[in-house]
Task: structure prediction
Amino acid sequence: MKDWNEKYAGDGFTIVGVHTPEFDVDKVTANVIEAAAQLGVVWPIAQDNDYRTWRSYNNRFWPAKYLVDANGVIRFTHFGEGRYEQTEHHIRALMAEAGYEVPDVPIGRQES
Result:
C-alpha cells in the first residue's frame, strides 16, 4: 500500500485505512497512531472499534482491500495478502476510467 500511495497519491487515487481492532489494546487511539507512525502509514485511518464499517461491508478478513470507483461503487475486492499486481492493474483501470492520467511507472513493488 505504501508503494501504491507513493505512485498514485495526487493522481486521483486515495487510500483510506479502516482499523478494526482484534484485541482491546488495539482499540486505544494512541496505540493506533503510534503503530501507524512506526509503519510509515501516512494516509487517513478510520478507527472502527464498534465494527460498524466491518459489518457494513460484510467483511470477515484481515486484511481486506476494497477499490471504490469515482461514483462510490465497490469495483474490486481482495481478502488476505497477495494479488498485489492484479490489484494495481485494477487501481490503474479505475483511475483511467475516472479521467486521471495514470503515471508512467512500472506495475509492482519498486524497491528503494
User: Anything to note?
Assistant: DSSP finds four helices and four strands in the chain. The CA atoms of residues 21 and 80 lie 16 Å apart.
